[in-house]
Amino acid sequence: EMLRSLVGSEMCIRDRNIGDEKEINVTFPEEYHVDDLKGKPAMFKVSVKEIKEKQLPELNDELVQDISEFKTVDEYKADLKATLEKKKAKDAEVKKENEAIEAAVANAAMEIPEAMIKQQALQMADGYDRNLKQQGISLEQYVKMMGMEIDKFIESIYPEAEKRIKNGLVLDAIAKAEDFTVTDEEVEEEIKNMASMYNMKEDELKDMMTDNERNQIKEDLAVQKAVKLIAAEAVEK
After folding, report:
1. Cα 74 to chain center, whole Å?
2. Scanning 8, 31, 167, 189, which has the fewest C-beta atoms within 10 Å of its C-beta?
3. Which conformational region is residue 168 in: left (phi greater than 0), alpha (psi within -120 to 50 degrees), or beta?
């Protein structure tokens, strides 16, 4: 998404027509997720397939009634404001949790076998591949476009893979040390949330779920409690 935005910002649509082609020189951001490409120059060939213009409708009570369950613009705006405030609070909570996890991991001494890191990197690559295929391209095709081989790409995400492993080990250790218990009610609530997220009926999801998957939910909920604990006890410097 970051790269798409960067290319898109250079491809100004003004004075362009369908069929026009252009070579765009950009520089990968320093925070790009592939280490070998951070800050590197690149050239993309793009062409105009179609031109669209957004035409926004007038915001009035009639429109609000068509697009939401509210009857007036004021009701709609009030709900939107509450949603944005909730998101802002959630983002701040997640930021604090991530910083607390980083601090906990930094204070933990551990040696991670390279085989474990490689396995985690492969799992991450599988996730990237699934996401890219939804856009009609495979991970291998993508990295070749970036001038890389798939093996080199996987090696480039080793640092992030190692970080994820360390995070998981530290949180698991905290959950076990604190002897967090997860009730059946909490598991049921999590399954209900999952069913809503996947747009499934709760009973259907339960029927598909194995005992191992239920146990994994319990473990995940215990880890979430560990995250909440270290975030609550974190001291800002």
Report:
1. 32
2. 31
3. alpha
- Rounded to 10°, the helix 158-177/73-106 angle is 90
The DSSP line for 82-108 is: HHHHHHHHHHHHHHHHHHHHHHHHHT-
pLDDT digits (tens, 9 = 90+) for 174-233: 999 999 989 999 999 999 999 888 888 999 888 888 888 889 999 999 999 999 998 888
DSSP conformational letter for 57 = P
What the block records as the tokens of 77 is 């705006």
User: Hunting for tokens 């926004």 — which residue is that?
Assistant: 56
Query: Position of tokens 């080199």?
Result: 152
Q: pTM for the full model?
A: 0.60
- Strand boundaries in the chain, DSSP class E: 21-27, 41-47
Residue 180, token pair as written in the block: 């967090």
